[in-house]
Specification:
Blueprint: H1 65-68, H2 72-85, H3 89-104, H4 106-109, H5 113-122, H6 137-147, H7 153-161, H8 165-172, H9 175-181, H10 187-198, H11 209-220, H12 225-248
Helix pairs in contact: 2-3, 2-5, 3-5, 3-10, 5-7, 6-7, 8-9, 8-12, 10-12, 11-12
């Protein structure tokens, strides 16, 4: 009989993590293990992306392993690699590009730079089929981080609410659950993460926000729940990108 195995545990960054308020506890899930230094290899892809190998991506500059291993961002990078690189290679390519964007804002973000980069690495882990309990990937990913990894509560909040997730939560009837389990993160950090995500293509390339929004509509089709959500969220997304441009020196593409 197959036995469940949780992903390898890395040092938790806050053991006093938030607890669910409606019983939505995530249990450890079986995930194929891969090396920390893995690349985009893998044959399976997420169902919402065309099945093809990832294009070359804007991979964040390498840093020495001694410097990396003592940071929150390095822990997040290793966990994201373990969960996504083999199972969902194109999603992994996107995540690498988002992390590169987050790192480019480090000097402007200041003390929260590591937190922003960690959220960039982990924002899409909820697409992993083994974690996708509700279909709202931000919520599913944040629950895993909270319940299994005992991650920093602010990191969980950023992942749960990234890129105006409350709009899709409303479409799925999960807005109340999302708000009860995870408080909204500070607006400045939320805007920065939204900017990083919504100016990065599925292949990890830096693109204009308008091109990114158009690509989502093309990929899902006009009648899909995600397309409806993005259409409703577009004013909020554009505002977030604009705020990040103004205060952090980011650009919208």
């Amino acid at each position: 009989m197959r036995q469940d195995k949780r992903p390898p545990r890395r040092p938790a960054w806050n053991r006093a993590a938030e607890r669910p308020k409606d019983g939505g506890i995530v249990k450890p899930v079986p995930v194929r293990l891969i090396c920390l230094m893995c690349d985009e290899r893998g044959s399976r892809d997420v169902s919402d992306v065309l099945r093809r190998r990832a294009a070359s991506v804007n991979v964040p500059p390498s840093r020495s392993s001694l410097d990396l291993m003592d940071t929150l961002a390095a822990w997040a990078q290793g966990l994201a690699c373990t969960l996504l690189a083999d199972a969902l290679p194109r999603r992994w390519a996107h995540v690498q590009g988002v992390a590169a964007r987050a790192r480019s804002l480090a000097s402007a973000v200041g003390a929260d730079a590591g937190l922003l980069e960690a959220a960039a690495w982990l924002h899409d882990i909820g697409y992993l089929p083994e974690l996708a309990a509700t279909g709202l990937h931000g919520l599913d990913g944040a629950r895993y981080l909270r319940d299994v990894e005992h991650a920093d509560p602010m990191l969980c909040r950023l992942v749960a609410h990234h890129s105006c997730a409350v709009i899709e939560a409303e479409e799925r009837g999960l807005a109340g659950v999302l708000r009860r389990e995870f408080d909204l993160p500070p607006q400045s950090l939320a805007d920065a993460l939204t900017c990083c995500d919504m100016t990065t293509s599925p292949d990890g390339e830096h693109v204009h926000v308008d091109r990114r929004l158009a690509e989502i509509h093309d990929r899902y089709g006009s009648g899909h729940l995600v397309s409806r959500s993005i259409r409703r969220a577009t004013p909020m997304i554009l505002q977030a990108v604009g705020q990040a441009c103004q205060y952090l020196g980011a650009d919208g593409g």
